[in-house]
Amino acid sequence: MNNTVFSNISKIIERDSKSTTYKFALLRGVIDIIQDNSPFISFSKDRVKIPTGLLIEKWMIYYYPILESDTYIPQINGETNLAFEVQFRKIIHSYRGNNGFSAFYNDLKNKGIPKELKPAFLELSRKLSETITKMPMKYIGRSLSNDYYSIFQFEPGKRKGKAGNIDIEFLISSFGTFSIPVEYYEAFKFLGSFISGQDSILFKWAEFSVNASGGNLSIDKVVKEVLRSPISERDMRESDKVFRDKLSKEGKILCVWTGKAITSYDIDHVIPFSVWKNNDLWNLLPSQSTTNNQKRDKIPSADLIEKRKDLIIQYWELLHANRPQRFQKEIQVALLGNNPFSNWHKSAINQLQSSCNYLISNRGYEAWNI
After folding, report:
1. How far apart are CA 284 and CA 220, in angstroms?
2. pLDDT digits 0-9 by tens, 250-285
3. I want to staple 222 with a disulfide (CB 3.0 to 4.6 A). Which of 188, 206, 259, 332 is the partner?
4. Pairwise CA distance, residues 282 & 271, whole Å
């Protein structure tokens, strides 16, 4: 990394032309994907490649609550709509009255988009891909250079013919990849949480909407909507049912962190919910209550995961046996990436260790050992 990159990022945020919030959504999405330590990130010479589908998913998360809100939150100057607004409102309308945002995201991540909504969802996905790659990716960095695509480069993928299950994996595999210079990746990796903090991207996004509304909105109101997550609560029901059945049959269960036999347990988020709002089955394992209270928001160290990996894998196999489709889909996206599920044990443990080490070493979270 060098100071030039940080200076360039600052200039992009402050000086690049702003007629829509697309630039903020692009930067926020890339930073969030990198901060998630996605296993789909790959390196090629001096550039870092990321599936465009992951960015499409982020834009869906960002813009859904904004377009769904009862309060009009401008995202573009003038009287025109966002390029994908018509397509998005069809989806929002279909989920209205049926848990809305959360139900949509659950379908996208787990169940798959319902058959009757597939055409509308595909239309939205394609429009988002087109908007992302032909607008902010093309123009971002114009305050630094007259060249188009001076920072972002896009490589289209082979679109699937007749789409089967439409979900997050479909997005990842169907919309090609984009790349950024490795020095920008490093900057976003180490300082992304600051760059996208209230004083930068999110604040500027909200500030844009407030200004575009003629001052009729407040920063707080806009930020609240922009930051609304489809996952707002801990949901441990399915994982808990699997472990309750095991406890009922065997009369005991082992604490994932100590290995001690216990007759009651807490469901622990391996990577804490406060750090990563993730209710995937692989992230929900049984722990002794006192141990869970000691762990709280700390991150398991790579060494601790190595010591407890046999029991972690044992519980993962139990969850897979009871909820095969959901477990496989969630662990593929979160931990396996492009690694085949046929050899998932080692790959998943390695990525879990990598993610935890990243949170400890680069994000500053406290490591936890027993």
Report:
1. 33
2. 999 999 999 999 999 999 999 999 888 899 999 999
3. 206
4. 10
